[in-house]
């Protein structure tokens, strides 16, 4: 119970620090625009897309592997997206020296192959059990 209160107090203190920094730097408007944009993007694009994909794969025989692959691909995309859509050259060229789009595509391929291999292995094991 104490750990819960300590974590809660730490969270409130960090939120207060963040609010102070936003007010001091004068970026409150930028933060508000970013937050509203995040809400609109999530509720208007991401959530309906996830629901539609969920409906499409609901009847698929290998839906567990497909769901797992889509979750991993979504997480990787969330991490890589800011680096892929960043406009212009980075301020420090040695900080972001890689081709992030290519690397993201390679990772998506690895995830797809991994999910496909999982489906194949499961089917082979099921056939062996039947015979």
Q: How would the blueprint of this fold be written?
A:
Elements: H1 2-25, H2 28-57, H3 63-84, H4 100-130
Mean pLDDT: 88
Q: In terms of structural class, how would the helical and strand content be classed?
A: mainly alpha
The DSSP helix count reads 4
How would you sum up the major sheet? none
Summarize the structure.
The protein contains four helices and no strands. With 131 residues, the protein is mostly helical.
Which descriptors would you attach to this protein?
single chain; 131 residues; mainly alpha; extended
Report on the architecture of this protein.
The protein has 4 helices and no strands. It is an all-alpha fold. α3 (63-84) runs antiparallel to α4 (100-130). The protein has helices at residues 2-25, 28-57, 63-84, 100-130.
